[in-house]
């Protein structure tokens, strides 16, 4: 996964542009989490540190938002999913 320095270099310009859309930087937290997740596949600890640094928030605040909303994944997600039909029990 990308380190914090790699995130800064790859996403810094996009983050600045996103933050500029909002009257208060804090309001850009969810869009920044989406940006990090789109880049990494899920929100890593480095992604949380990146958002924290960009917005001047504590990492705990960013982590709380990322863990509260189910749309943000904190672990890698399987690339495929499978579903199986219910089975009948033999009597």
3D structure, described in words:
With 91 residues, the chain is mainly α. The protein is elongated, with a radius of gyration of 17 Å. The mean pLDDT is 88. Helix 1 crosses helix 2 and helix 3 crosses helix 4. The protein contains four helices and no strands.
Summed up, what is this model?
The chain has 91 residues and is mainly alpha-helical. 54% of the residues lie in helices and 0% in strands.
How much helical structure, as a percent, in the residues?
A: 40-55%
Mean pLDDT: 88
For the biggest sheet, the summary is: none
Number of strands: 0
- Helix and strand composition category: mainly alpha
Order of helices and strands: HHHH
Low-confidence stretches: none
Number of helices: 4
| Rg over CA atoms | 17 Å
- Shape descriptor: elongated
Give the end-to-end Cα distance, rounded to a whole number of Å. Answer: 50 Å
Beta-strand share of residues: under 5%
Secondary structure layout plus pairing:
Elements: H1 4-19, H2 29-40, H3 45-55, H4 59-68
From the structure above, extract its key features.
91 residues; mainly alpha; 4 helices; 54% helix
